[in-house]
């Protein structure tokens, strides 16, 4: 029954703590900082009625020192502390699959799809060559059909995940269209 974290992701976690105060008897000061860089300490004030708080915009694969300081006008409560380590950044795409290849189209799918991705950009163009076309797909989707292709041609297909953080991750695959009629 102490301060602890749940729902830990690469960039956030939720803190839970026992009810020590009420709205009337005070508030909490929450301090958190990466253990290897305590100078980057951030502070939040939380209502005495609250027993949870989500911290977000955190750095992946980082251990945070968290201190909850009850500021009571009735009793002294010692600060509660905990350490929480965020997860590694989920990286997508880790697989690009080409299927249903015909003379003028093929199907591109990728995995995994993640909440942290806003959109996927699919770049494709014939090899060898430098005429590249771009398709943009919503981050909820994990496949698309590329059409209007030349038959019996090898294409380089690159799927780029665009994260909410602005980060991008790409993975390429080769696809061949079938011979035409």
Automatic annotation (TrEMBL):
<keyword id="KW-0677">Repeat</keyword>
<dbReference type="Pfam" id="PF00041">
    <property type="entry name" value="fn3"/>
</dbReference>
<dbReference type="InterPro" id="IPR036116">
    <property type="entry name" value="FN3_sf"/>
</dbReference>
<dbReference type="InterPro" id="IPR013783">
    <property type="entry name" value="Ig-like_fold"/>
</dbReference>
<dbReference type="InterPro" id="IPR050991">
    <property type="entry name" value="ECM_Regulatory_Proteins"/>
</dbReference>
<dbReference type="GO" id="GO:0005576">
    <property type="term" value="C:extracellular region"/>
</dbReference>
<feature type="domain" description="Fibronectin type-III">
    <location>
        <begin position="92"/>
        <end position="180"/>
    </location>
</feature>
<keyword id="KW-0325">Glycoprotein</keyword>
<keyword id="KW-0732">Signal</keyword>
<feature type="domain" description="Fibronectin type-III">
    <location>
        <begin position="1"/>
        <end position="90"/>
    </location>
</feature>
<dbReference type="InterPro" id="IPR003961">
    <property type="entry name" value="FN3_dom"/>
</dbReference>
<keyword id="KW-0964">Secreted</keyword>
<protein>
    <submittedName>
        <fullName>VWA1 protein</fullName>
    </submittedName>
</protein>
């Amino acid at each position: 029954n102490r301060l602890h974290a749940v729902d830990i992701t690469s960039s956030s976690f939720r803190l839970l703590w026992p009810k020590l105060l009420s709205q009337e008897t005070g508030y909490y000061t929450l301090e958190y900082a990466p253990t290897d860089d305590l100078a980057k300490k951030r502070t939040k004030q939380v209502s005495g009625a609250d027993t949870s708080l989500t911290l977000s915009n955190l750095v992946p694969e980082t251990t945070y020192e968290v201190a909850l300081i009850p500021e009571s006008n009735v009793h002294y409560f010692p600060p509660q502390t905990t350490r929480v380590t965020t997860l590694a950044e989920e990286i997508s795409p880790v697989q690009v699959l080409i299927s249903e290849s015909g003379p003028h189209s093929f199907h591109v799918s990728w995995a995994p799809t993640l909440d942290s991705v806003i959109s996927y950009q699919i770049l494709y163009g014939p090899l060898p060559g430098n005429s590249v076309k771009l398709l943009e797909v919503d981050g909820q989707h994990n496949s698309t059909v590329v059409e209007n292709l030349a038959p019996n041609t090898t294409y380089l297909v690159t799927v780029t995940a665009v994260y909410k953080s602005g980060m991008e991750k790409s993975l390429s695959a080769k696809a061949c269209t079938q011979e035409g009629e």
